[in-house]
Amino acid sequence: MKRDDVAQKLNAKSAYDDEATGLVKVLLRGDAFNVNGISTLADHDGRRLTELEFDYLGDSSCGLFRVHVPGGKYGYLDVNGKLAIKPLYDYAQDFSEDLAWVTRGGKLYILECSGGETEPESLPNGEYAVVKPFSEGLARVSILNLGGFWGFMNLAYHHDDSNNAGLWGYVDKRGKVIVPPQYIFAEDFSGGFAIVCKGEWTKEKKWDNKYNKGKYWSEEMKWGALGRDCAEAIPCLFEEIKWRPWDTDYAAGEAVITKRYLAAMDENGKWGIIDFKGNWVVVPQFDDVGYECDTSPNGDMFVFYGRKIWDGGNPDDTPCGVYSISKQKVLVPAEKYRHIDFISDYEISVSDNSQWTDCVNIPIPE
Asked: What share of the chain is helix, strand, coil (3-state, %, to 5)?
């Protein structure tokens, strides 16, 4: 039975497939599964798995659904519709690597899928303000709450990593502090690396303008990356570092780094490519680098831009070109095309207008 048929059979407003379990989240009444709604769990035959109803019903993680009981607290529902973990928690996250952050009685705990709890070690220089899901055995924690969806509202200027702003460190699965909070930007570990940034947040009048007053900014931001041992594998010396998105594949939901490069900016504001030791593979020379790269195992070619993408105007109307790492040269100058996408190792799709229409396929020049 399709999910719409399940909803109709249960006289519900809508239904949503949970891909991981093959079950159906059913919105009985209200607006949504996570706000102003009442939901329950069913199978694809349209049978309710529980008589319980929830005003929050999340997607499954580790075979458990995070739920909130109306007038009560958070708990976790199993695939049989039973409360595997009773609703005891004032705050709860989804499980990641079989662990979830929860609060109960004003205390923070690491919750196991089995229901066991571990109280994390106290942070040496403050209290937990933000906790992130576990990734590769470590969880990112901050003693300063600057990020999240509305993180840009706490910063004096826009930054692409505003949701990763804070004062971050890392703890292991037992809650032991591995890296004390010290980085003003930080990302989760992926492929044995985590991009981080050193600096010092301040609130100064010089950051104020008619739109922003009394918000945080850092005079200096120096970017690097932590390795699997949590030491700085790439020293925090760069003006900015970002993953090239094409370096990450996803297998069974896990991020796997397939190519050993990062995009980095030097002190002159130019972008180049570095390896995972911080050595320049392509010397800084580009105003910006893009998200597109070829499909070869080495990810040899990438798109660069003729000016900074966000320096006013329409980013889609920015001229872009193609550079080859192995040949160390520009193959397509950033002059004519406003859109380039790789079709294969020898062919690209290009368009000379900002609407990405009228694309044509052309061979990549040698």
From this structure: 5, 50, 45
Please, are residues 328 and 298 in contact by the beta-carbon 8 Å criterion?
A: no
CA separation for the pair 246, 293 (Å, rounded): 7
Segments in the chain forming alpha helices (H): 3-9
Q: Which of 67, 89, 111 is the last residue of a domain?
A: 89
pLDDT at 158: 83
pLDDT class of 251 with cuts at 50, 70, 90: very low
Task: Please name which of 44, 94, 28 lies closest in space to residue 67, comparing C-alpha atoms.
Answer: 94
Token code pair at residue 26: 């059913």
Q: What confidence category does residue 70 fall into, taking pLDDT thresholds of 50, 70 and 90? A: very high
The C-alpha atoms of residue 356 and residue 46 are separated, in whole angstroms, by 44
Measured over all CA atoms, what is the biggest interatomic distance in the chain, rounded to whole angstroms?
Answer: 66
From residue 287, give the alpha-carbon distance in Å to each of 132, 270, 311, 353.
33, 5, 10, 20
Whether residue 76 sits in one domain with residue 6? yes
For 300-322, the pLDDT digits (tens) are: 888 999 988 877 667 788 999 99
Domain count, the chain: 2
CA-to-CA dists, residue 330 to 23, 107, 304, 320, 350, angstroms = 51, 56, 9, 11, 16
Q: Which domain holds residue 134?
A: 120-238
Q: Which pTM was predicted? A: 0.88
* Residues 167, 172, 175, 176, CA torsion sign: negative
- In a 3-state reduction of DSSP, which class is residue 172? strand
Q: How many CB atoms lie within 10 A of CB 257?
A: 16
